[in-house]
Amino acid sequence: MIYNYVAPCHFGLEKTLTFEIKKIGGENVRAENGRVFFSGGAEVCAKANVFLRTAERVCVVLGQFKAVTFDELFEGIRKLPLSEFIGKNDKFPNNGHSLNSKLTSVPAIQKIVKKSMAVNLGKAYGMGVMPESGRECRIRFSLMKDEFTLMLDTSGQGLHKRGYRRDSNAAPIRETLAAGIVDIARVRDGDIICDPFCGSGTLLIESAMKALNIAPGLNRRFDGEHMKFLPESVWTSAREEAQSLIKEDGEFRAVGFDIDKECVDLTAANAKIAGVGEYITVERRDIRDFAYPENAVKILTNPPYGERMLEISEAREIYGTMGERLLPLNGNQLYAITPDEEFEDIFGAKADKNRKLYNGMMMCRLYSYFR
Predict the structure, then answer these.
(1) pTM > 0.90
(2) What is the rounded CA–CA span in Å between residue 356 and residue 363?
(3) What's the rounded Cα separation, in Å, for the pair 225 and 62?
(4) Which of 179, 233, 212, 176 shows the shortest CA–CA distance to 47?
(5) Three-class SS of residue 85?
């Protein structure tokens, strides 16, 4: 059986996610703003949850149709084959969003979705009232330019929840965004990665996992494992494949620095939980004391933002110090993400490329220096 899926991602990472989906066997891949649609069998769903590094979650598309009135919304949902995916005792809470559409009230949309789904499933199972006493099937919806999409979440907790970051510093970068930066920097086994503002270690750990081919979802569970149309065998197979692909003798190395001892300890602890502790060294060090190692490195970093941890002037002072310590690059590479449009001027060099990425709702740029 072939199903239609959709995986949301950070704006700016659609191309990266498209490549990942094709690599695991997804077909009919189509990217649009902040999400990628694809199709495949049950095995593709399991592999998507286990292997995808930049997807936020993996959902089955239950249906898509135009809806400019609540009647159209109700009737559209009522006609969908929901009983193929949702059991007679399953709970089916829903949430979602509406953008640039005639129907704007999310609470009102939620009520119609719930009511129509109950009518649909009640008819399919011959029940007047749905008991909702069993497992939870999380329903998500999007209404964009009057196009309604109803989805069943197979991931559960967001896929950025790898399991290694039990704690974090005040302003962490999400694992999925970090993985996107790692992909853009083309991190490979044999590279030396450095982060002079390592925080909770996310960029270093995601670099290690990519270089050593450790699947991000290998050590966690998913809601889809309890869904009747996704047999246990596909999850077992996906995990066995992921385990077989790990590079046990990788030459990758990473080093992290931070002025805060708590961040240093946190990075070391998180790296150990992720199973990459032996590949990552962490030290307490100020950016003012930064010195390049003998071998060429790729610096991946999320320096302090003026909007969140420091006043803008303090953050910019750090950017200036970065320029003093990191320039000239002399064969090293730098990938720095920041929302500050003045970064290049303050740092003291124009990037070879800058790419618009969103860290949550914050528009940032990834400044890449690789020549």
Answers:
(1) yes
(2) 7
(3) 18
(4) 233
(5) coil
